[in-house]
Here is the input.
Amino acid sequence: MARIVRRAAPLAAGAALLLTLVPVRALTVREAGSGQLLYAARVQAGEAVSLEYMHSVDRVPVTGRFRVAADGALTLEETVAPAFGAGLPRLGPGEPYRLTGGLLRSPESVRLTELPLLVHPVARMQLSLRGREVPLAALPGAPARVRVRVERLPALRLLLAS
Here is the structure.
């Protein structure tokens, strides 16, 4: 048994070293002032991410649908709401939109390197990734200003953040 442990120890050490050195792409939420990592989840190019919240003025649910670009940018593809008002896209004459299930869907194509947010429990803001919902107001330090972006993290840090 001791021989197995002696042989396995270098393999375990090598695996641990790889986990600390190999960067992986992650969707991160960081406190805007300190940069403290509040949430991280592995993502791949082409993956969909949604931001859902209650609009502070109109009190209607809003969803922003993003896609992770190959270079790590977040591309806003669509904004969905029952109506568009203050702070939401303005649809002018002839601008494209769809009405589906009573919701206006405004196509977008906005690339962002990061998404700055003010998180407050009233907005019930949450990220959705692969069917998992992450309530931002429940993260440590909320309500707070946060930055959502895609960045490369060591695999071990990503495991510890989950």
User: Anything to note?
Assistant: The longest strand covers residues 144-154. The two ends are 33 Å apart (CA to CA). The CA atoms of residues 34 and 146 lie 10 Å apart. The helical segments are 2-21, 155-161.
